[in-house]
Amino acid sequence: MTFTVGFDLDMTLIDSRPGIRACYLALSERTGTYIDADLAVTRLGPPLAEELVNWFPQEQVPVMADLYREMYPAIAIAATPAMDGAREAIAAVRAAGGRTMVVTAKYEPNAKLHLGHLGIEPDVIVGDLWAEQKAEALRAYAAGVYVGDHVGDVRGARTAGALSVAVATGPCPADELRAAGADVVLDDLSAFPAWLAGHREAEAPRA
After folding, report:
1. SS3 label, residue 52
2. Residues 6+ apart with CB under 8 A from 124
């Protein structure tokens, strides 16, 4: 059976801070509502609504989320670079004969725009899933490993029964990721190909 590795998107494969910051500033200007964009980008990971509720009344959040997502492609896509090692991590899974998937809380059409713009082409992209919800997609594709930067990603991996590989490139420091139950903690994705090679060798059946 083909082995499958899942990846989170924001702050795992892409540094979404510049684009998201710009989009929050544009939303603030458009609505006349103050948003501390610099603060907002320090806590990326959870769904958009969980951030917007800090700045808008609860009843306005669905409309503001729709407006943000409508503005997002023109503002955020070009401003967002790949994280160090992102392309190499995807390539390492492919070189080992595996399948890659991205499972993210981000609105799925915008996730696809990011990956397309950067020329990163996973085999499967699933959006709009956060934390334990990510297990739905990971189980559906029998992912054995899930790579993410947030304790929510660790919970998603563990709920799915997948190995949790955490990268300390997002809002959660390495100690917090370990405490949440990550099986492996890497400084960033640059270390992933070597880790994967060792993992595959350890998993290989002995003659």
Report:
1. helix
2. 99, 100, 101, 102, 137, 141
- Supply the pLDDT for residue 171: 97
DSSP E strands in the chain: the ranges are: 4-7, 99-103, 124-126, 143-148, 163-167, 184-186
For residue 28 the two structure tokens come to 């603030």
Residues near 133 by beta carbon (within 8 Å), at least 6 away in sequence: 156
- In three-state secondary structure terms, 173 is coil
Can you give the pLDDT at residue 207? Answer: 57
- Residue type, position 33, single letter: T
Cut 0.90: pTM above it: yes
Q: Tokens 């669905």 identify what position?
A: 62
- Using an 8 Å Cβ cutoff, are 124 and 149 in contact? no
What distances in angstroms separate CA 38 from CA 35, 44, 64, 97, 172, one per listed residue? 9, 11, 19, 40, 16
Cβ atoms of residues 48 and 107 within 8 Å: yes
